Structures are given as structure tokens and as C-alpha cells.
Amino acid sequence: MLTAVIFAVSCFLVISLLQHASEANGILRSGWLIAALLAVGAGGGAAHYLATLIPAQGWPGGENLATLTSSIIVVGSAGIAGWAAGILRIDRHLIIAAALPSAITIATMHLAVMAYPRFQGQLMWLAVMMAASTALAAVGGACGLWIGKSGRAVGFRVAGTVALTASTYLHHAITLYATSIGVGAGPNKPVLSTSFDWTVGVTVLRGLLIFTLILMGTWFEVRDIRRSRHKDERLKSLAEATLDGLVVCVGTQIVHANQNFSVLARSCQEIIRASEFSRWIPDVAAVDLLSARPNLPVQTNLVRSDGSCIEVELVQQTIDVDGKAHSVIGIRHLSPRRDTGQQLQIALQHDALTGLSNRARLNIVLQEMFALEAASRQPFAVYSIDIDRFKHVNDVFGNGYGDQLLVGFAQRLRKTVGSDHFIARIGGDEFVVVQPNLAAIDDTGRLAICLASIVAEPFVLGSVTIKATASIGVAVAPKDGANPEQILKSADQAMQQAKRTRNSVKTFAPEMDESFSDRVHIELILANAILNDRFVLHYQPLFDVASGALIGFEALIRMIDDHGRLVPPASFIPVAEDMGLLGEIGAWALKEACVNAAKWPEQLTIAVNLSATQFGDGSLAHLVSSTIHDSGLAASRLELEITESLLLEDSDSIMAELRALKDTGAKIVMDDFGTGYSSLSYLWKFPFDKLKVDRSFMTGFDGTGERVKTVLRTVIGLGRELNMRVTVEGVETDEQAAFLKSVNGDQVQGYLYGVPMTSADVSIFLEESFSNARQRQA
Question: pLDDT tens across 283-330, in order?
């Protein structure tokens, strides 16, 4: 039993040392091989010596020169086999070539020991049994080395050790069984020695040699384990750093694979690391091409664990890890890449929010339409659609509701227009519809009215209902444009013309080019006015109907162009709103009006118009409060005029902002009452301080006087019942003034009483007004 343990330890040590030799290079490999042959020689010799101490089958025990010689032979043969395997890089398919001479040498050692004449008689062998034992030693040795070389795990080395030890001892047993002694048949020669004095010393040296080699092997094993872990961590970090699949190979053996490759192969990393690269990429030609063309892509198929195949692209690069070449192979799945390319192409030509085509796709379609028109002589129409006051929707309700409005409108467009029509979203709230095969110009009018009607229907977005309108411009190709750029420009110019009045449809006309140029000119003047403070306020007086006394002014903004001329608000306010400048302009007007009004007599009020866009971010009440404080104006003297268009959305946020404005102490006035929707629900939902009747009533006073008078009586009576004062704008004749006095009107404003004037003219006007008042009292 002790001999088996000693020989097993030496075998385990030899396999471990050969593992180190296979992973080393140059002179270091030679050192490992020398250590391996010393281990097998010392271990085998020591085990055999102990075996000879115990007589078996009548064999005398003891050590002699024959056993020493046989040990040297074992060392030499093992060295030759080890060197052969080492030179050939310890490849497993060459292990048989290394195991065969070792087996023959072991058999020779046994025969040499037994043949030494320590007894009287003639040795006789059964040739067949001896050949069988030698073959068993060869096969067992080959299997042991094969198993031991299969992996670095301890289990492989243990299994290899068991195979080597078992085959050697079976060989020893068969050899003894196949050998017999003919008594008296041989010569009688003296034994060289039967004492244990020198043999014990040799055995001790062998034991020390084996112990030393075990210590060395253990130290190097621990060191290599640490290095291996460090190397594995480096390889793992390298492999996981890429988004593609990646494997690291030594030769054809996979030593590491990242998680992405596991997903591609549909297998776990442990199985992949224990496999050959050819298991997953069986295309030999592709692998050879990959090795011949490093860093260049090669396309082939990857065979997954379930047998399915996917198309992949391989790229290989060789790196050095601890002096050993490693092949790093990247694997990219081509199908998702192609799908991604198609998705990217779709994304580049479609709007992400609504799913409609975008401007890039629109240009392609228009080019196709012009080509078709040239061949068929069939005109087509282009509709440019802009949602009115869309920025106000974003400002008041937030961008989320604005996005929902756009999506809802896109859905209505899809349901309304024909399947052969083309729809695109080319800007924030700008849409284009292309109508093919236009049979008559009347067709454009019918579709335009239909488009306007689907916008006018209220949008119910959760708890919010938004009423919207659209400005639509129509252009017909090829008469309004001979290419995509020209036809889109014509449709846009018609739409810009429609935006002047909003909620309307305009068909392109050549004179619109001039109108478009005028708009561009206004935009330039606006930009210059913002930069150089080229805005002024004019003030129009308001009078009490009953007493005729001056009670205040309304501030009206004007813009100065590059030539010093005044630009009326009707020309630049809509453009400023489209450009998003009304908030800044309105804040300036409020502060300027309050500063000037603070210098007037205390009984005079100042009315300032507020834009719907100023209600967007919820900071308007703070602006009004700080302006009142900074200017020193009494809050009760400030009147804030809003139009009913602000109330169309009927939102809680608008009502909350109006209440916050009222809390500042300022008066809230509904301006232009009687136009638009004129819903009476506004009057009871919010306690306005005053109603201002639109000037259009005075314009129609002469033509349909009785009806206008009836409406005015009703509005004035309604205001009185709701504790609201009523101001009538646009009073220009004595007849109009007399009627308003007869129906007990509250306040009037118009050219009959005073035109808008500068701040300097207000001072003169005040002096004259108070002088006239004093004269009337006298």
C-alpha cells in the first residue's frame, strides 16, 4: 500500500509539472521537463525499492545495483518521452508516442531486477503474458497522460494519476505472474549486497528529492493559480467591455466568452469555455480566412446550442497574455444590425411623436409627384396647415398636453383624408397634406373645409378640453410651383396669409409673395426693436358717460421702424406672437405704463392689455405685483385687460392665474366682449370688474342701429346686474355718445373723446381737461 501511495504521489507530481511545462516557453519549459523526469525516476525507483523489501512468490527482498540501474533507465526513458512531448508542445494526440517508450522501459526495469541472480535457478517467462503487461502499461500510461492533460482542474490530474498508478501496478502483477524459476537450472552467483545500509541512504535521498519537488510544485501551483485568476479577470474585463459577442481562444480552445456571446449561442459560459471554437463556427473556410486576414470582417453562420443558425460577422485579433498568443474574436449578429438599419431609415423619414412622415420623406414624395405629373399631366394640391396659437396651449397646459393635441390631430388627419393622400408633420405645429390626381380646383376647397372642421372639433385630453383652430394654405402644382421647394413655399405663404385672421383658408396667389416679404420685413424690424428698445406707449383717454369727466387711459403699444415711423400693433403683434416675443414685449409695456401712470393724478386709472402667452409659466401675478410695488402705483388704479380667446381652453390653470391677478388688487377687464364665442359662462365663472364692448358694435351702429342698440342695452344691463362697469370702444360720433348716455352707459372711449397720444402729450391733455372741468364747474 505504501508503494502505491509513493508512486501515486510521484505520478500526480509529474502530471502537474508537465502542465507547467506545456504553459511555459524556452528554457523555462526545459526546466519543468527536467523536474518531471526527476520526479518520475525518483518516485518509481523508491516505490520499486520498497516493493523488493517484501518477498513475494518466493522472491528474495533487497536492493542491489540492478535496481539502481533500472531506476536510471526509467529516468532516461521518461526524460526522452518528456522531451519528445515537450518539443511537440505536449499535444494530447502525441501522448501515445511518449507513453509507449515509457511502458517498454518500465517493463525492462522489472525484467532487469528479476533477472539479477540473487538465487539458484533459471528464470522463465510467458512471452504472451509479458507482451500483454507491456501493452497494458502503454495503454494505461497513455490514458493517464491524456486525462491529466485534459484540463487544469485537480480532478483531471487525480484521474490521470489513478490511471497511471493502476496500469503500472497491474503491469507489475502480471509480470510476476508470468515469471517462474527453474530450480537448479541456472548458475549460482553471489548477490552483490543484501544489506540495507547504503540502500537506505539512497531511498532517503529519493524521498527528499520527491518532497522537494512536491514543495516546489505546490509553490508554483499556488502562484499559477493566482496568475490564472488575474489573467481570467483581465480576459473577462476585456470580453465584457464590448457590446458584441466575444470569445478568447488559445489555439482552437475557447478559454473565455462574454455574456453577449452566451446570448448569441444560447448556452452558458461554462459549457462554452469547455468547447472548441469549431463547435460554434463549423465553417472551416471562414475560420481559415479569419486567421489569414486579422482585423478584417468575415461573414459566416453561428450554430447555436439548439441547432439553429444565425448570420454573424467575425473579426479576429491576436494579443499576448503572459507570453502566450490568444486569439480575440468578435462576433456580431448581422440580422439585428440590418433590422436596426431599416429602423434607422424609417426613423430618419418619420416623425417620432405622431408617426407621420417628416420633411425628408415629404421632399422625396413631392419629387415623385412631380415626375408623375410630368408624365400624366395630372395636377396635385399641397395643403400647409398650422394650428393657431399652439404655443399658447404649451404655455398654459404644458408640453405634454401640446404633444397630445398634435397626436390627436394627426389621428384625425389619417381618418379624414383618402388613403392615396400623403400626410407629413414638418414642424412643431405645421402639417402638410398632398392631394394627388386633382380633377378640379373646387376639390381643394372641399378638402380645406374638411381639414379646418376636424381641427375645430374640441380635443378632450384627459380632464382638459382644448378648442383649437387652424390656418390653412393651399397651392396647386405645377402652376404654383414647379419643384418641391417652390410648391411648399407657395403653400406656406398662403398659410401665413391665413394666419393673419386665423381659423381661415387661403389659396395661393402671386401677390402673396409681396405679403410674405412684408412679414419677413416685420420680423427684422421686431428683432431690431427688441435689441434697441424701439417701442413706445401711446395713451387713449377714457371718459365717464354721465359726468363727461376723464377717468383714465388705455396704454397702446407702438413700434418704431428703421426710418422712425410708427408701426401699428395690428401689423406686428401677430408676428411677435408667432415669434414668441409677446411675453417680453408685454412685460416692458406693463412696467412702462405703471411708471408713467404713477405720475398722474390719483383718480386716473391705467389699462394695460395682457397677451394670452403671458399666462404660460404662471409668473404673471408675480410680475404684476412687483411692478405695482416698484412703480409706486396704487393697485386699484391698474386695469388688466384680457381677451375672451384666453378663456377658450376653460382650464383650471387660467382661472387660478386670474384669481392670483385679482389678489394683487388690480382690476380685471374682459376686452373685446361681443366678438368670438362670447360665452356668458365666462361672466359667472370669474368675477370680472369691467366689460369692454368691441368697437365693431359702433361700426355697425348706423347700418343696423336698432339691433345694435338692443344688444348694447342688454349688455349694459347685464353688466349692471353683475356689478360690472361697461366701457364701449370706438365711439366717434355725437349720436353714438348720446345713445350711450340715454341707456346709462358707464364709460366711453374713442376718437370723439381723444386719440392715442404720447406720454408728453398726456401732460398737456391733462392740463386742458382739468382746466375745462374747472370752467364747467364755475
Answer: 988 898 888 888 888 999 999 988 888 889 999 988 887 667 888 899
Judge whether residue 44 has pLDDT over 70.
Answer: no
CB 167 within 8 A of CB 110: no
Containing H/E element for 560? strand 550-560
DSSP state of 688: -
Cα separation, 553 vs 539, in Å, equals 6
Distance between CA atoms of 778 and 773, rounded to whole angstroms? 9
d(CA 511, CA 500): 15
Cell 389699462, residue located: 607
Q: What's the half-sphere exposure (Cβ side, CA atoms, 13 Å) at 426?
A: 21
What does the pLDDT look like over 527-545, one tens digit per residue? Answer: 888 888 899 999 999 999 9
* pTM of the predicted model over 0.70: no
In 3D, which of 554, 538, 594, 598 has the Cα closest to residue 727? 554
Tens of pLDDT, residue by residue over 435-456, are 988 876 667 878 888 898 888 8
Establish whether the linkage from the previous residue to 294 is cis, with ω within 30° of 0.
no
Taking residue 185's Cβ as centre, other Cβ atoms within 10 Å add up to 11
| 298-303 sheet: strands from edge to edge | 253-257, 245-250, 324-333, 309-321, 298-303
The region that residue 619 occupies, defined by phi over 0 for left and psi between -120 and 50 for alpha, beta otherwise, is: alpha
Cβ neighbours of residue 235 under 8 Å, at least 6 residues apart? 248, 255, 256, 321, 326
**Nearest one of 151, 153, 322, 326 to 230, comparing CA atoms:** 322
The SS3 call for residue 186 is: coil
- Whether 529 contacts 571, CB under 8 Å: no
CB 673 within 8 A of CB 641: no
Q: Give 693's contacts (C-beta < 8 A, 6+ positions apart).
A: 673, 674, 712, 715, 726, 727, 728, 729
Contacts 24+ apart (CB under 8 A), 568-576: 571/522, 572/522, 572/525, 572/526, 574/499, 574/500, 575/519, 575/522, 575/523, 575/526, 576/526
Amino acid at 392: H
Question: Residue range 707-726: average pLDDT?
Answer: 88
Dist CA 436 CA 432 (whole Å)? 13
Grid cell, residue 215, equals 514543495
